[in-house]
Design goal:
- This protein is an all-alpha fold and 293 residues long.
- It is 79% helix and 0% strand.
- Helix 1 (2-24) crosses helix 5 (83-108).
- The chain starts with a helix and ends in a 6-residue tail after the last helix.
- The relative contact order is 0.06.
């Protein structure tokens, strides 16, 4: 029986390592991350991770509205995963959760078969949490960089460049490398070069990002292009509006901070202060109880 548990542990640990590798290296990308060693990159190009994950998650992937919603969330995260690959990642996550439980249970010397269900469930929903964290991080990065990008576009257009030329200048700034907004604008630039209309490319970018700030920016550009409004003034005014919205959002978060502090203050800080202040008084009162005389 112990040999069977060890065999299951080794298999699930191998699958857990595969899950970690696929989380670091998106399977839909043509090349692995450049910061990894050359041997790992060469091995990864030969490893059919997309096919394996798709085959694992093909039966679990859903079609219809739920599948479309998951596909939209994957697009918001900019991960490049398909629905089948993400479902396969969830299955591997469940197996990885079971393997972690087996390791912990072996160290404790006792294994409960009923605890496999919560461990597997935790590993199954872990990719959902990872996806939501990545979506939030990507949206914050886009909102933070948007005013600077609009200012640079306004300066380049005011210097005499057209919108595509200004966009290429912004894409060439080294300080903006590996930023989500720059990646989306690079997609827009490539689509325009391949013959797609600029308005359609911008609307597709707004749909992929799904942020009110980006949608407003795209709507402003499309209306300015349609009505013949000078692009420099439009970009300058919109950059100021985006900064004002960001300042208003920061003020709103600052106003919510005192209310959020009340919860740890009441349930954690005040009891500790009461114990530190009141414990010596209570001990002294118990040792010198006047009512016992």
């Amino acid at each position: 029986m112990q040999e069977l548990w060890l065999f299951a542990l080794y298999v699930t640990a191998f699958l857990g390592v595969g899950l970690a590798m696929t989380a670091v290296l998106p399977p839909s990308s043509p090349a692995p991350a450049p910061h990894l060693p050359r041997t790992v990159r060469r091995w990864w190009r030969r490893f059919p991770s997309s096919a394996i994950l798709s085959a694992i998650g093909k039966g679990l992937s859903r079609r219809g509205p739920r599948g479309d919603a998951l596909r939209a969330r994957l697009s918001y995260a900019g991960s490049g995963w398909t629905v089948e690959e993400f479902a396969g990642m969830k299955i591997l996550g469940a197996l990885g959760g079971c393997s972690v439980y087996v390791v912990i249970a072996q160290e404790l010397g006792r294994i409960h078969p009923l605890l496999f269900l919560p461990a597997g469930l935790l590993g199954f929903i872990a990719p959902e949490g990872w996806l939501q964290v990545r979506i939030n991080r990507r949206k914050r990065a886009i909102v933070r960089l948007l005013p600077d990008v609009i200012d640079l576009l306004s300066l380049c257009v005011g210097a005499g460049l057209d919108f595509l030329g200004a966009l290429n200048k912004v894409l060439g700034v080294k300080a903006f490398e590996r930023q989500p907004l720059i990646e989306e604008l690079a997609v827009v630039s490539q689509e325009v070069k391949f013959g797609k209309r600029r308005g359609e490319s911008l609307k597709a970018m707004a749909k992929r990002v799904a942020l009110p700030e980006v949608s407003s920016f795209v709507r402003t550009l499309v209306q300015a292009d349609r009505m013949g409004t000078p692009m420099t003034e439009v970009l300058a005014i919109h950059a100021e509006d985006v900064r004002l919205q960001r300042w208003t959002r920061a003020e709103r978060a600052a106003m919510k901070a005192p209310i959020k502090i009340l919860i740890p203050l009441i349930f954690f800080i005040m009891p500790c202060v009461a114990i530190i202040v009141g414990a010596p008084i209570f001990i002294q009162f118990m040792q010198q109880n006047p009512f016992a005389r």
